[in-house]
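Quick one: structure for this chain?
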Amino acid sequence: MYKHKIAIVGATGAVGTVFLKMLEDRKYPSELLRIFASKRSLGKKIDYLDDHLFVEEIQEDSFFDSDFVFISATTSISESIAELAVKSGAIVIDDSSAFRLSEEVPLVIPEINSKDLTAHKGIVSIPNCSTTPLAMVLACLTQLSRPLRVITDTYQSVSGTGSAAVSELLNQSKSVAVGKEVLKDVYPHQIAFNLFPHIDDLQSNGYTKEEMKMVLETKKILHRPDLEISATCVRVPVIVSHSQSVHIEFENEVKVDDAIEKLDNFPGIKILDDLNNNIYPTPLDAAGKDDVFVGRVRADSYRSNILVLWVVTDNLRKGAALNALQISDSMIEMKLVV
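Got it. Here's what it folds into:
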């Protein structure tokens, strides 16, 4: 059934671990996989199906036999490895921000713009983990009316920073519970029982890099350079799943019932919306699941062309690993890889 050889760079990280688990769930043959990570993980043995995979060090010839190279590492690592993989004949599917805004690199969410894959030149980028659910909701609701302006506030889990941030949250929580000193390393502030409106570096316009990722990436994916987007990104003490409060202004009036119907029938989106019975998406609901969950869909109190809604997604799955895997599936289906 499977024939394409896959290399995973960053296989021991938060996203890489989920990616491997998804391949394992598919029973993807171990002999078609090679895994790579940082030097501190070299030689590490990872259980996979009834076999083991061993972490390797990247060499000049590491990707000669790979059809796909999935990179989930830092931007600098992506920049140093991607071209090597392409020259080796592989297709790179990159999880970093290194190539997302490059005109020559498709930025893809398969449910929205898989056609953009036909223009690839060896590298395909996946969006930021908060961009993906926002873009999917906007793409869906465009069927009802053209979005003009979007305001979104995110509540992003610590796993978006990586495994070390998850450990920091857990360790700080234990320290607070027993009255011990809280140690900080990954974040500039205590994250346990706290939150802060600061994700990534501050830009010259007063927004952070994370906020501008959402703005620029969403415009590129939707092919809407005119779309007005403003974002505030907040880090919260949640392990997995990013949440968003989204306000969308449309060209025309959009009825709530129509929006819910469209959303619930859009690939990859699931509605959880019954406030009277306390049914709405939470991070725990989304964790470990593939869908973009939407709830609290309501009309603006003053304007009939504005909708307000709540969106929650597992940032490690649809926000990263699943989207990358769906891209490879799409490329195979579209016969873009032999």
